[in-house]
Design goal:
single chain; 184 residues; alpha+beta; eleven-stranded antiparallel β-sheet; 11 strands; disordered N terminus
Length: 184
């Protein structure tokens, strides 16, 4: 009887894990959607709110286009990070000048592509089933520009909370997400 109960629990656990695991992008697929970001800074009473659209492919990285309160475009790829304002490059940072950028790119790539096994192994985190979806929290080693990251979602990544030193944090909520296939 104990063996039957144990096997039943194990099967239920595997079933829940399979249902709660987020979508994983395949080669050539693009994830698109909207975002709202609330940035909480130590010493300020209210969050700074911005919103816009994003596009992510494993090949080109994250294209983050803020539309409000003002238009900017930020591209984060394995080559680095570039910011544009009114189509003019205003900031360019490469991983050799800021090594933590490699960690940021890797975390973005692994989380946006749904490569949870790699994210769990690299950062000793575990994907947990929660009501209505899943959650993963980890604390990176080394010189990362953040103390902890919590990812929450269901089919896709729905919220990303980045905790920074001195109590600052970013809460990014994703919506209207959809995957498109590469054109043949």
């Amino acid at each position: 009887m104990r063996l039957l109960t144990l096997l039943t629990l194990l099967l239920l656990s595997v079933s829940v894990q399979a249902q709660e695991r987020p979508t994983q992008l395949q080669d050539g697929e693009t994830l698109r959607g909207d975002f709202t970001q609330l940035r909480y800074l130590n010493g300020f009473n209210h969050a700074i709110k911005s919103s816009g659209v994003f596009e992510f492919t494993e090949e080109t990285g994250l294209d983050w286009q803020t539309q409000t309160p003002f238009a900017t475009r930020l591209i984060v790829s394995e080559k680095g990070m570039v910011q544009y304002v009114d189509g003019v490059e205003t900031l360019k940072v490469t991983p050799d000048k800021f090594p933590a950028l490699s960690t940021l790119h890797e975390v973005l790539t692994l989380s946006m592509t749904g490569a949870w096994d790699q994210l769990e192994a690299k950062y000793q985190a575990s994907l947990e089933a929660i009501e209505g979806g899943w959650q993963l929290t980890f604390k990176p080693d080394g010189e990362a520009p953040f103390e902890a990251v919590t990812l929450t979602g269901a089919e896709y990544l729905d919220q990303l909370v980045i905790r920074k030193p001195q109590g600052d944090r970013d809460e990014i909520t994703f919506s209207n997400q959809h995957v498109t296939k590469a054109r043949p």
